[in-house]
Structure formats: C-alpha cells, structure tokens
Amino acid sequence: MKTQVAIIGAGPSGLLLGQLLHLQGIDTVILEAKTPDYVLHRIRAGVLEQGMVDLLREAKVGARMDREGHVHDGFTLAFNGRRERIDLKSLTNGKTVTVYGQTEVTRDLMQARSEARALSIYETTDVQLHDFYRDQPRVTFVKDGETVELECDYIAGCDGFHGVSRQSVPADALKTFERDYPFGWIGVLSETPPVAPELIYANHPRGFALCSMRSDVLSRYYVQCSLEDKVEQWSDERFWTELKSRIPEDVAAKLITGPSIEKSIAPLRSFVTEPMKFGRLFLVGDAAHIVPPTGAKGLNLAASDVYTLYHSLRKTYHEGRNDLLEKYSQICLRRIWKAERFSWWMTSLLHKFSDDPFNQRIQSAELEYYTGSLAGRTTIAENYVGLPYEPIE
Questions:
Q1: HSE on the CB side for 126, CA within 13 Å?
Q2: Domain tally for the chain?
Q3: How do 119-121 and 28-31 pair as beta strands?
Q4: Which phi and psi angles does 76 have, rounded to 5°?
C-alpha cells in the first residue's frame, strides 16, 4: 500500500487532519487499534475554543456543531461564597467557546471521512513505524492476521499518550517535562438538565467542583477526589451530596440529580515532550502533551497541532515549501507551553492542595485580584477562549 500521509490514530485529531488534507487533495490512510464504536464512545472534552470551532468549519464538518452546539459567552468562578462571571465575549472582542462533546466531533469527522471514501483501517495490531528518519518512511501492521506494509511520505502520530508513535522514537531523542498533581477528578454524566446555562468552576474548602454540560438534557459534573479513591466508593448519592456542598447554595438548590450514565476518576497531570518532529514523524495532540482538564485545553491543543501540521503539509505539497515542516515543533511548542501555563494556573487556583492556611489565603487573594481587575479578567478570558493560532507562512 502507498499513501502520502499515514495517520496513526482515529481520534478527533487524526480524523480532523485527515479531513483537512483530503480537502486539499492530499491522500491519507488512518490506522486505529480500536473499533469505530470504541473510539466514538470515549467520554472526553466538551468545550471548544474559538480556533477549533473555526478549524472544524474550515474542514466542512461544522454544520451540526453550529446547529446543536451551545455557544457560551462566559463562565463563572465561585469562591468565598460569591460568584464572579468572566464575560468572554466582551473581554476578547467577540470570541466565545462552544460546548459540543468530543463524541459528537468524532462522529461528524467519521461521517465526513466515510462520505469522502477515504481509507480508515480499524482493529489493527502490531503497528510499527520504520525509516522515519529517511525519505521514504513505512508503517507495518497486522489486519485480520495478515501483515501489511504502508509506504508514505510522512507519518502523523495522533495516537495518544500510550500510542506507538512516541514509543517509536529513540529515547535519547526525547526530552520530557511533567508534573503529577496530588488529586483526581471524579466525573459523572447524567441525563439531567444543566444546573446553569454556563460553566461554573468552584473553589471550596472541601475541594474543587465543576458544573458543566453536553446538551440541554445531558450534564457533566466533577468534584476533586483523592487519588486513592475508587469509582465503587462513590455512589450517586455521595457524589450529588458532595457536589452540592461545594457549589453556591442557590445553585445547589436548583440542581436536578439523577442516575449517572457514566462515572470515572481521572488523575490530573501535565506532560510535554520536546521536540515533536523526528525526521518525517510528527507527534500530534496527547502523543506529545497532556494538560490537566481545568482549563479545557486538551482537545483544543490537539486541534492547534493539527492546524500547524495541516498548513505546513499543504504548502509543502502545493508550493514546495519544505522549510515549514522543519518549524513544526517550534511553532506548536510556543502555544503548548502557554496553554500548559494556563492549565497549571487554573489548577493551582481552584483546587485544595492541603490544609495549609497560607496556601488557602493566597488562592483567595489571587481570585480576588484577578476577578476584581479588568486586566485580570481579560487575561483569564484571552486564555480561556484560546490564544491565536500562529500563521504558517
């Protein structure tokens, strides 16, 4: 088999890259270890930055998002018994975020790829990347018991933190930076109307809480928990009781509870690998970086990687601009580290790290300062809606 760009991983970043390249007449093959149904039903991110919304429209997969997604002009920070709204739209010259679940983004991209009759091969095993430091890289894999070789010009590693792409890079070629946080989030998805029309991030002496949503009838809630906790220890009743204790009383009084349809615990961590380019192999999204979910940056950072790689490949094939791909790591990492900083800051600001009263007073002072200052609110808003993509030229 031959293609121009081999894409490892059929999550939203791999599918989005494949769709954008297809629209430019650049051939791709996507390889995925899991089934389409498994990929489609990962419960993940739901807040899309303005840049990702625009990129999905550019990929011609934004119609359902525009119909069914919820545009949010702001969000609320709750602390010290009060609520402060960050007015995203007015503070960023009209930029907003859109609540539209990763599941739905993936569904739209899968449908577009199917309609384009572009090749995605699911349930592949023993995927191996070869010769990516040379001019003609190859990918071998096993499908239905048969070993297949795929020749290509470039490889895009969109297969996540545990995927084969980063693991294929020689260890001495990588430098990693990471931080593990001493707590996790337990999240619940419920078929109940959201408690508020916009997201509420709560700092409370008992720990962090977040009121989010997926639609008018589907809510997503989180509370900070111990890393030692197990899902089985968190009955629905315990979760709802704890959530109500951490959010403002008037909000808790309006909370409609119900059986959870999904419940999971996720640790929080920051991770970045440098560089992100190795010959003709490019790491994209979680394969290269992870952020704690507090700032809603994970999926959005993957989209900005896709933007950079897509435009670099487009200009390479159509304009002979071989210099642009050499800049991929530098361009991506400039934005990644700014998003890592914002996610770290939001996590540090809103979570309970200890019973240390000094730390608690610092958090309170930080919240008071940023919400009480136009410059502070603007800084939060600019980062939350997403910093601009760097032009590829």
A1: 10
A2: 1
A3: parallel
A4: -120, 140
Rounded distance between C-alpha atoms, residue 273 and residue 122, angstroms: 27
* 152-167 burial: b if 16+ Cβ within 10 Å, else e: bbbbbbbbbeebbbbe
The answer to the question of residue 341 being in a domain is yes
Tell whether 387 is covered by a domain: no
- What is the pLDDT at residue 43? 65
Instruction: Report the C-alpha gap between 287 and 325 in whole angstroms.
Output: 18
The single-letter code of the amino acid at 103 is T
DSSP state of 59: T
- Whether residue 357 is contained in a domain is answered as no
Q: Which domain holds residue 31?
A: 5-70+97-177+268-352
Active site residues: 72, 201, 293, 297, 384
Residue 215: pLDDT band with limits 50, 70, 90: confident
CA 172, chain centre distance (Å): 27
Q: What sign results for the dihedral spanned by CA atoms 78, 46, 89, 385? A: positive
pLDDT at residue 42 above 80?
Answer: no
Tokens of 240: 């709802």
d(CA 27, CA 356): 56
What is the side-by-side order of every strand in the sheet holding 138-143?
A: 125-130, 138-143, 146-151
DSSP string, 121-183: E-S-EEEEEE-TTSSS-EEEEEETTEEEEEE-SEEEE-S-TTSHHHHTS-GGG-EEEEEEEEE
CATH number, domain of 330, equals 3.50.50.60
Whole-angstrom distance, CA of residue 390 vs CA of residue 64: 27
Is residue 392's pLDDT more than 90?
A: yes
3-state helix, strand, coil in the chain (%, to 5): 40, 30, 30
Q: What DSSP string describes 190-259?
A: ESS--SSSS-EEE--TT--EEEEEEETTEEEEEEEE-TT--GGG--HHHHHHHHHHHS-HHHHHHPPP--
Pairing of strands 200-202, 209-215: antiparallel
Distance CA 303, CA 280 (A): 20
In a domain? residue 150:
yes
pLDDT above 90 coverage of the chain, percent: 93
* CA proximity to 261, closest of 208, 210, 219: 219
Contact 255, 236 (CB under 8 A): no
